[in-house]
Design brief:
The protein is α+β, with helices and mostly antiparallel strands. 15% of the residues lie in helices and 36% in strands. The protein is elongated, with a radius of gyration of 21 Å. The protein starts with 10 loop residues before the first strand and ends in a 5-residue tail after the last strand. About 3% of the residues have low confidence. It has two domains: 98 residues, Alpha-Beta Plaits (2-Layer Sandwich), CATH 3.30.70.940; 47 residues, SH3 type barrels (Roll).
Length: 175
C-alpha cells in the first residue's frame, strides 16, 4: 500500500550519531538508499610532525536525513545512528530551506565555525591559541563567534578582537 497523499511527504530530520561516527553513519544510510546530508568543512589539522587539510563535520555527532515518516525505524536501525533529535516531545523536522541555506553557506568562501560556547559579558577569559595567546581580559560584548569586545585587564581599555570563540577559555577564578 503506497501512500500518495501529502500526509507522508519527505522531511529533513536531524539525527544524532555515535561519537565520531558521522561519516560511517552517512555511508550506511546512503547504502540503504536513504537520502542523507552531512555538512562538512575543510579544517587544517596540526599533528606533531605535519599539518593536513581534512574534511570535518560542521556540527559534531549530527547529520540530516530526508525521509518519509515510515522510514524512521530504518534510520534508527542503521550502524552509527543513535537517535533522532526531539523538540517539545516531537521528533524535530527541519524545513527544506534551512538545509538549502546550510548547503549555500558551506559553498561560500566564508570561514565557518560552530561552537556551543556562549560567552557572557563580565566573564574573565584568556585567549588560548593564535597570535593573541595568553592575553587575559573580560568579555564586554559578545557580537558573534568571531568578534568579541574585550576589556584588557591591566590597561582598562576595550578592544574589538576578531578571534574565534573556540580560542577563548574561561578563567574560572584563575589568577
Amino acid at each position: 500500500m503506497a501512500l500518495t497523499s501529502g500526509t507522508d511527504q519527505k522531511k529533513w530530520y536531524p539525527v544524532y550519531t555515535q561519537s565520531r561516527a558521522e561519516k560511517k553513519a552517512l555511508q550506511a544510510l546512503l547504502g540503504k538508499g536513504i537520502e542523507a546530508y552531512l555538512p562538512l568543512h575543510r579544517q587544517l589539522k596540526q599533528w606533531s610532525d605535519r599539518k593536513k587539510w581534512v574534511e570535518e563535520p560542521l556540527i559534531k555527532s549530527y547529520l540530516f536525513v530526508h525521509i518519509h515518516h515510515h522510514q524512521k525505524t530504518e534510520v534508527l536501525m542503521t550502524s552509527g545512528v543513535s537517535r533522532f533529535i526531539y523538540f517539545s516531545g516531537e521528533i524535530a523536522a527541519m524545513p527544506d530551506r534551512q538545509i538549502e541555506a546550510l548547503k549555500l553557506l558551506l559553498a561560500s568562501p566564508y570561514e565557518l565555525e560552530i561552537t556551543e560556547e556562549k560567552l557572557l559579558p563580565g566573564e574573565k577569559i584568556e585567549i588560548k591559541a593564535g597570535p593573541l595567546k595568553g592575553i587575559r581580559g573580560e568579555i564586554i560584548e559578545y557580537r558573534s563567534q568571531k568578534q568579541l569586545l574585550i576589556r584588557l585587564g591591566d590597561i582598562s581599555h576595550s578592544v574589538i578582537v576578531n578571534v574565534s570563540a573556540s580560542l577563548i577559555e574561561r578563567m574560572n577564578n584563575k589568577s
